[in-house]
Amino acid sequence: MKYTLPLMGLVLLFAHSGIARDNGDGTYSNPMIFADYPDSEVIRVGTDYYYLSSTFHWIPGNPILHSKDLVNWKPVGHTIPDYKWDPRYDLGEHGSGYGHGSWAPTLRYHNGAFYSACYVWTDSRDKKGQFYLSRFKSVEGPWETNLIDEHLYDPALFFDDDGRVYVFHGQNEIYVTELDQYLTKVITPAKLVYRGRNYFEGAHAYKINGMYYLFCTGTGQQQCLRSKNIEGPYEHKTVCVADLNFPNSYLHQGGLVDTPSGEWWAIIFQDHGKHGRIPFLLPVEWEDGWPMVQPVMTHKKPDVGNVPSNTEGQIWRSDDFSAPKLGLQWQWNHHPDNAGWSLTERPGWLRLRTTYKTDVLRNARNTLAQQMMGPDSGAIAKFDASEMKDGDVAGLGLFSAYSSSIAVVAKDGKKHLAVITEMPRRGLTEAATEPLATDTIWMRAEMPYLEYAVNYSYSTDGKTFKPLGEKLGVSFEFFWDWLAPRYCLYNYATQETGGHVDIDSFEYILPKQKTNLHAFGDPIDAMFYDEISNPLERTFRWVDDGMENIFLHVDRISIIAKGWHERPYAWTGAYEAKKPGNWIKFNRVDFGKRAKVMGIRAMGKGTVFIRLTDENGPVVAEGGVSSDELATVELKLEKRINGVHPITVVFTPEDQQSVVLRELIVQ
Q1: 3-state SS of 275-326?
Q2: Among 7, 17, 131, 573, which is 20 to 30 Å from 345 by CA?
Q3: What's this model's pTM, rounded to 2 decimal places?
């Protein structure tokens, strides 16, 4: 029996809720949230868990997520309503706040109130940053805010047992500073408590069993400091080194939390390519008084007691704009001009009115966006462009330092569609233009599976879509934005203000696969394993699946400099077995009614064994790999298998060789 292993294309559906990492069988799979929620902070209040993330220049800032089980999350609020004291966040003559705004937030619950603080990077000549504090009784707000004019980098707010309040802060050199009891001012000079060698930052402070702990990051490793005295001296231990499912990109920064049952967990983010910095939920085992973080991909859910879980997470959501206010999934790029948008002027539609002239999207006010989801996703927006004025540009795109979009452009009394790219210091490029004969248009953006790319298309009836333009690159750029691309809706004027577009709907396109149950006939990507034998010996490969060259090591910044949008690379998370006996396990593979064949896409030289259950289970298929390029190898099952089973792929590479697994399939 011959078959062709299908390409990993998008299998999509419209959805109004996010994708849960809950497998439905008492386990969960990492990443906890497959989207850009960096600078992980987590606390428990009774039986409720709250996760806080930074969002830099996006408004409202620093989203709070809520969970009952540490696995299923939904948004409940934000801790920063605005940066009104800084005119740069109005995107006008004073500049912009890109790469600035909120950094590394901290969240604590004390005496019946929530307290959140963050470092606000200013980068001005007279000061580097400020300490921004929010106090609120409920995570839904309203907030009481306070700005302390102090440079407290990556702050960790800490309430001690004696009623005193401290902030741990710093980079490489960790300091502690005391605040007054009202959290309005600094009352002691910063005292150095630890000088590190490994780029320590992002401290989170705890007092556990009478010991002070600082949970930090350093050179891609999770670090921990501890002392019997708040001012030290502190001793140090590395508590986790892991790259999990994204080789050569290690866990970076996060916090600790306990459950009422006495379990301890860590939520730590990882730099994850185009998706930005995404959080992982990891169990913690205490060893000699140190919180050792256990790297896992699939694991038993936390024991939170007899508490019902949230319904499936509602982080990524479609919107028909019929609600009286915007959903919590939306954020504005910098401060919105409230005279330029409305949900009531045309009920059931979002109106975006031009109030400010600019030549590029990056400087346009009232750009609305939400995070994209991994490993792939898409979006469709329905526009009414009838009231656009000459020079107006309105569309749907991926907003980042390197933005692209599909847009309606009004020019010389007519309108046309275009694909637009925008790069820092290189300006705007308009391509693939087509005349537009109707004012009602559906625009679509889709990210092919695991590729650093986006495809744009359009429809005049909402059903049949026509591609527009070439596949474009998608990037995450550290030093400009510090954030992954986001799906955005926008409208800006280049000639005169006062025109508007109305948007009837935004439909999020999400992958069909929701858990680690791999369906019969669907390719299983190597990156979605459940367990692995050698987690730190895999290879990061950029693979030419019919697109570009193969790279073993790629510097992401240099690739961008060469023109990211013009070179749509495909990314592949491949597993590399370097030693005999290396294995990779998938806990739930559906063999259908009676599977007969397993196929793998692999490269290298060696033998591959498919075993039921674990690495010592019975061999049900085996075959050889001998190719310098990815090739499909058919492995006939020794007996027909039906139903759902765990399988383990075990490798025996030849001497001085390795075997790289890209994906496998049951058929």
Answers
A1: HCEEEEEEEEEEECCEEEECCCCEEECCCCCCCCCCCCCCCCCCECCCCCCC
A2: 17
A3: 0.91
